[in-house]
Amino acid sequence: MHIPDGFLNAATSIGTGVVAAGGIGAALRQTGKSIAVDKRVPLAGITAAVIFVLQMLNFPVALGTSGHLLGGALAAILLGPWMGVLVVTVVVGVQALVFADGGVSAIGPNIFNMAIVTALVGWAVFRLVRMVTPPTRWGVLTATFLAGLLSVVASSVAFSIQYAIGGQGGAPLPAVFGAMASVHTIIGIGEGVISAAIVGALLSTRPDLVAGAADLRGQSVGSSRGTVIVGALLAAVLAFGVAPFANPNPDGLERVAIDLGFMDEATDPATATSPLADYVVEGLGENALSIGLAGVVGALMVALVAWLIVRGMRRGTPSR
Amino acid sequence: MAHRAWYAARDAVSVSQLHTHTLYVHGHSPAHRLPSHVKVAALLVFLLGVVSTPREAFWAFGAHAAVLAVAARTAQLTAPFMVRRMLVEVPFVLFAAFLPFLGPDPRIEVLGISLSQEGLWGAWSILARATLGTGAAVLLAATTEVPDILTGLSRLRVPAVLVAIAGFMVRYLDVLADELGRMRTAAAVRGFRQRGRGALRALASVAGSLFIRAYERGERIHAAMVVRGYRGVMPQPFASPAVAADWSRGLALPLVGVTVAVLAVLL
């Protein structure tokens, strides 16, 4: 999921970077300045460290990119959505600067996809699910699972859209989208389970550390309705943005044709020869097949790596 | 199967890097001595040049690589070392390897294989830029200790909250690794075997209790810091201010890169 240098064109990187900077600015304003000595900083630090480790578990995705756990939803549920944004921003920033993981010039898109989208969409899903489930431990855990799952899928969709706008190399978009979304659905299940395991353990022993479940202790969750709406809108925009690629039935194909007909008219002749325009004329009939195939291959690869990791962990257990 | 080998290589790199201090290579080179915020700024300027270089300008990428090589030489880092560290980029650029096969028409024949021209350009562009970017970041991490990078960030006016979270994160990575080691030993001593469904449930609870144990240790560390006067910013008793000479020394090479990029755009 980490985008390397040179993967997106400069305009896309900078544009997404500006949006990401706006998101971080909003998060800084929302969390306030007093945070440095309050108890949330160690919690933010340990959450960042855990997310850092979780992001190291990489699964190969068909087409040669990779996917991994993201952690934004977990951070949002433990610390509130805006603090969650900051925590994952720090993880992504340190990875780029210190670990050469994800390009420094692609830090805007990386922060947008992995910190802002995951934390805000995760929080919106969490809150919305909690509205319709009973205010119990199981309600919280169900909401956590779904928030983890959907935040990862949303993030992979954001990645696909950026690739569609400014990606290098002209790989077929439906295949990119199909591979990213299907593999991240499976990774998302893992993310949901791990997030729920951590939240569950905290609810049993240190419920004071779960901001999203403050209502179980008789306190208010203390996040505005506005934030939930922002997250839900973000999710809706992402879902709408991929609708043309995600829908393999004839309506969906017509939709692509209409969109692209429109695009050809709207852009000047220089960009009408771009891979996007080119591809859709040429490869329309293969879309459903390549989505399906890429999804199946990706799913098998994730299963294989998950199995290898479990095996590796068994072997790594000290035998003393 | 190539995938498996690459990912195994990456995991080997990553896990050893969990201890962040292992990234740093002790030395006294001019690159080590530069103030950390100058180095972070230099990295950003260099990458600005790399990213804005048009992909058709092969000579410019050669020049960027030469700039990076001179910098690595100045830092007294060897080529094998750089290459080994740069392996982290492999999973990210694998995508590039697929582009020539998946990209759009027109196609050209290379050794009897039909490849997409646009895909070849895309693959070259990603590989070249990502390799230069990774090399530059490796250089920063190898010559600058992590606390210094954090100090450098706060001197570049990165908001204090972000630097504070990053500082705690880096410290807690070691706490986490140590705590996990203790829990594994404890589980092994009690005859734990990772088999069957019960084991999966046990692993889930390991994840939860690892989090809580590490957090509670971290909470005590934080309390100890606060009673000793920590107010959100780490004191920097030894951070020397950057003088003009530092800036000119640190930015000389990145500015060569930017000049190359400007020439490549114009020519």
Strand order in space, largest sheet of chain A: 1-2
Helical content class of chain B: over 70%
Mean pLDDT of chain B: 77
Number of helices of chain A: 12
Write the topology of this structure.
The complex is a heterodimer of chains A (320) and B (267).
Chain A: H1 10-31, H2 40-56, E1 58-60, E2 66-68, H3 72-79, H4 81-98, H5 107-132, H6 137-166, H7 173-205, H8 225-246, H9 250-266, H10 269-272, H11 275-283, H12 287-316
Antiparallel strand pairs in A: 1-2
Helix pairs in contact in A: 1-4, 1-5, 2-3, 2-4, 3-4, 3-5, 3-6, 3-7, 4-5, 5-6, 5-8, 6-7, 6-8, 7-12, 8-9
Chain B: H1 2-16, H2 30-33, H3 36-52, H4 58-74, H5 79-86, H6 90-102, E1 107-110, E2 113-116, H7 117-143, H8 146-155, H9 160-189, H10 196-227, H11 244-266
Antiparallel strand pairs in B: 1-2
Please explain how this structure is put together.
The complex is a heterodimer of chains A (320) and B (267). The model of chain A is unreliable at 246-289 and 316-320 (pLDDT under 50). Chain A has a single domain, classed as Arp2/3 complex 21 kDa subunit ARPC3, CATH 1.10.1760. Chain A has helices at 10-31, 40-56, 72-79, 81-98, 107-132, 137-166, 173-205, 225-246, 250-266, 269-272, 275-283, 287-316, and strands spanning 58-60, 66-68. With 320 residues, chain A is mainly α. Chain A has twelve helices and two strands. Chain A has a two-stranded antiparallel sheet. Chain B is mostly helical. Chain B has two domains: 2-154 and 240-266, no CATH class; 158-227. Chain B has a two-stranded antiparallel ribbon with strand order 1-2. The chains are: A mainly alpha (320), B mainly alpha (267).
